[in-house]
Design a protein that fits this description.
By secondary structure, the chain is α/β, with parallel strands linked by helices. It has one domain: NAD(P)-binding Rossmann-like Domain (Rossmann fold, 3-Layer(aba) Sandwich), CATH 3.40.50.720. Helices cover about 40% and strands about 15% of the residues. It is built from 9 helices and 12 strands. It has a 6-stranded parallel beta sheet with strand order 2-1-3-4-5-10, sandwiched between helices. It has a two-stranded parallel ribbon with strand order 6-9. Helix 3 links the parallel strand 3 and strand 4. The two termini are about 30 Å apart. The structure holds NADPH dihydro-nicotinamide-adenine-dinucleotide phosphate (NDP) and dtdp-4-keto-L-rhamnose (TDO). Dtdp-4-keto-L-rhamnose (TDO) binds next to helix 5 and strand 7. Belongs to the dTDP-4-dehydrorhamnose reductase family. It catalyses: dTDP-beta-L-rhamnose + NADP(+) = dTDP-4-dehydro-beta-L-rhamnose + NADPH + H(+).
Amino acid sequence: MNNKQNILVFGGLGQLGQCISKVCIQRGWSAILFLDEVEGNILDPEILEKLFQQESPEFVINCAAYTAVDKAEDEVGLSEKINKDGAANLARCCEQFNATLIHISTDFVFEGNVPKLLNEEDLAEPINVYGKTKLAGEQEIVSILKEHYIIRTSWLYSEFANNFVKTMLKLGFERDELSVITDQVGTPTYGVDLASAILDIVESGNKTYGTYHYSNEGVTSWYDFAKAIFDLSGTEVKLHPIPGSAYPTKAARPAFSVMDKTKIKQTFDLEIPYWRDSLITCINALKKQ
Ligand SMILES: NC(=O)C1=CN([C@@H]2O[C@H](COP(=O)(O)OP(=O)(O)OC[C@H]3O[C@@H](n4cnc5c(N)ncnc54)[C@H](OP(=O)(O)O)[C@@H]3O)[C@@H](O)[C@H]2O)C=CC1
Ligand SMILES: Cc1cn([C@H]2C[C@H](O)[C@@H](COP(=O)(O)OP(=O)(O)O[C@H]3O[C@@H](C)C(=O)[C@@H](O)[C@H]3O)O2)c(=O)[nH]c1=O
């Protein structure tokens, strides 16, 4: 990596931002600035313009997002502002200041009603507000800026911030029994693996811009994922498989959102770990905390 390449990370203190920071430390990358939601508020064009002027970034990584899937159903305006308008603001600055944007999106842009591997050309038809606003953000970027990589990922977890793995470990510690749904199927993604892939793309110099899918390898349900979390962490809890209808949530979620990763693997020559192997890595990292 050429350490002169300036990189700005928006949402730098969120889950994925912290994963990127971890991998940067491992790789000895230092020309990278992690911005919180105040100093790098993607809703404030003035702040953004100043930052871009001062830093002249070569790459911008957008990890900033509104990610509260159920709450988004009640906070449509805020979700749209952050996920759509914020993404557009960054794309405009990248266009003006000649930067490349790496933007993170989600499997929740898909309806997920067919058990078929989803590729980048498949029709995106989100079924909840979060997914709709993330798709709108993608569309803004595509219309404003050629030099972009949009990376859709799914079921992100890590040792940082809040995520399903940490929620399960907390609930497993507090309760004797837990019920988790079996009829939503997808692939977990260890944030540190995704962070490595993002930095590999930066490092590659490969300018094949466009939309890509990235998750870990394999397929699972939330129930099987929870089972693996408890087995691998040695947490004793009675786990009940239930249908989604027995766990009503404000937002609907895709029943099947397993993504095809052929394009990202072939374009950038990436090897992707199997989800269970990465879960072991994450649980070991959590044990060391
Ligand atoms: N988490 C998941 O399971 C998945 C996430 N994704 C996508 O991956 C990306 C990273 O997600 P993840 O790291 O888990 O999300 P987090 O919610 O952990 O991080 C998002 C960060 O964005 C910040 N933020 C919110 N509003 C603004 C703003 N106006 N300006 C700047 N920063 C802001 C948040 O700050 P604060 O907390 O203070 O509000 C938070 O630090 C997102 O694009 C998300 O949509 C995709 C698939 C799965
Ligand atoms: C806590 C809990 C959840 N569940 C179910 C609810 C839900 O369908 C599923 C996952 O729960 P969560 O609410 O933690 O996950 P959720 O917020 O839906 O996760 C999504 O987040 C956004 C940001 C994305 O982009 C998606 O890829 C995906 O990771 O597990 C249970 O069945 N039992 C439980 O005890």
